Amino acid sequence: MSSPATQSAPLVRPGRWIADGAACTVTFAVRNFGIRTVTGQLPVTSADVTIDGHGQPARIRANLDVRGIETGHRRRDADLRGPRFFDTDRWPSISFEATGISPVGTGWTVDGKLTVKDITSPVRLEVSEVRPTSPDPASPVSLRATGSVDRRTAGITGGPGFLIGHAISLWMAAEFSPASRPSTC
Hints:
Strand 8 and strand 9 (141-150) form a beta hairpin. The chain has a single domain (15-178), classed as Lipid/polyisoprenoid-binding, YceI-like (Lipocalin), CATH 2.40.128. It has one helix and ten strands. It is elongated, with a radius of gyration of 17 Å. The chain has one helix at residues 74-81, and strands at residues 15-19, 25-32, 36-42, 44-51, 57-65, 93-104, 107-116, 119-132, 141-150, 167-178. The chain has an eight-stranded antiparallel β-barrel. It is mainly β. The longest helix is centred in the middle third of the chain and has 8 residues, at 74-81.
């Protein structure tokens, strides 16, 4: 039996893998008024991973629909979509593209660039729980990723810092299938 330090991320079939939109969630959390945490979700409109000949990810891209932001409070959601924050009339989506991928334990560390509005900022994601849904190398693969971003470097400067925290925590759960299978993203 391998120790966690010597295990490596599972190998999957080389090629392009596409996220199943029905099985994707991106959740975020930010401190509000310094005492409370507000959470919300953003819909994933597309996400894909290209797996190299060694069964490791070589390229990762994703797009999120900011118009679909949900925090459980309609007025706050409308404010977040407005010009003080995301300005979804001008910039309806957020994009992510990996710039570096390194295997770590049973997952990967993914460095990338997050583009919000017209501002690109660095972000690091820790991908874990990479699990094929069956032993077949063409079966869907599920994963979880976590990270954080400073909203100011991402161009989200609306609202004073003492009311709305700067650090935004991110969680993503997704399932990817080979591109030859139908996708709902």
